[in-house]
């Protein structure tokens, strides 16, 4: 009986936390897209494609590529000019993987 009650409480808590995680992800995604739009960067496929590409930036960094290497990848795989490619990578790091901020060259 106690185990069932505990299990029911755990499920209820998880149910309450899921919308919070989704809301936070939506806020991060919305801020990321707004940052891109502020520089005139739009994804001609979809906003979800831009978000997915932002996460791919983090995966590449997690796998050992430097931010410069990732900028080159974005430049070669998109129609963005060099400045926008660099801005996209920086915005992706800022939004989705701030743990890589220290790797961004300054100056």
UniProtKB/TrEMBL annotation:
InterPro entries: DUF732. Residues 29-98 form the DUF732 domain. Residues 1-23 form the signal peptide. It holds the Pfam family DUF732. It comes from the Bacteria. Keywords: Signal. This is DUF732 domain-containing protein.
């Amino acid at each position: 009986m106690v185990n069932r009650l505990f299990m029911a409480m755990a499920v209820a808590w998880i149910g309450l936390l899921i919308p919070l995680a989704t809301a936070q992800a939506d806020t991060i995604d919305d801020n990321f897209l707004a940052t891109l739009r502020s520089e005139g960067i739009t994804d001609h496929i979809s906003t979800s494609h831009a978000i997915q590409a932002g996460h791919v930036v983090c995966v590449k960094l997690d796998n050992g590529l430097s931010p410069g290497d990732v900028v080159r990848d974005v430049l070669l795989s998109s129609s963005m000019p060099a400045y926008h490619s660099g801005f996209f990578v920086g915005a992706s790091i800022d939004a989705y993987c701030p743990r890589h901020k220290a790797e961004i060259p300054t100056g």
